[in-house]
Amino acid sequence: RATVVSRDALSIDLKEAGRERAFLDADLLPGPLLIRPRRPGDRFVPLGAPGTRKVKSFLIDRKVPVDERGRIPLVLSGDRIAWVVDHEIDDRFKVTDATRRILVLEKAPR
């Protein structure tokens, strides 16, 4: 589920995003959102990281079992990965003090 809310209207502490929810700066997302599985060579900038990382390496470092890695969906905006669902958002789309509108993405319960 995706919802856009004003920064002032958000009543949740952003640090409580959890694994099933992501908060992104809606004004930084170029283009429509797309959900797809991981592909070889996929790269993103993990939150707080100094540069890009391969999604595969990121998941290995997180000790995600190999049989689960292919089932983790990626949320893309344009051609950039915005959220590795259940794990991390891309630092380029993080909410900052300058953010006016927040895109709240929530993973549907199974």
Q: Name the helicity range.
A: 10-25%
Given as residue ranges, the uncertain stretches (5+ residues, pLDDT < 50) are: none
- Classification by helices and strands: mainly beta
Radius of gyration: 14 Å
Order of neighbouring strands in the sheet with most strands: 3-6-7-8
Summarize the entry for a quick read.
With 110 residues, the chain is mainly β. Helix content is 10%, strand content 34%.
Which characteristics define this entry?
mainly beta; 2 helices; 34% strand; globular
Describe this structure in words.
- The structure is a single chain.
- It is built from two helices and nine strands.
- The protein has helices at residues 55-61, 66-69, and strands at residues 2-6, 21-25, 33-37, 43-44, 53-54, 73-77, 80-84, 88-89, 101-106.
- The two termini are 13 Å apart.
- Helices cover 10% and strands 34% of the residues.
- With 110 residues, it is mainly β.
How would you summarize the topology of this molecule?
Elements: E1 2-6, E2 21-25, E3 33-37, E4 43-44, E5 53-54, H1 55-61, H2 66-69, E6 73-77, E7 80-84, E8 88-89, E9 101-106
Antiparallel strand pairs: 1-9, 2-9, 3-6, 4-5, 6-7, 7-8
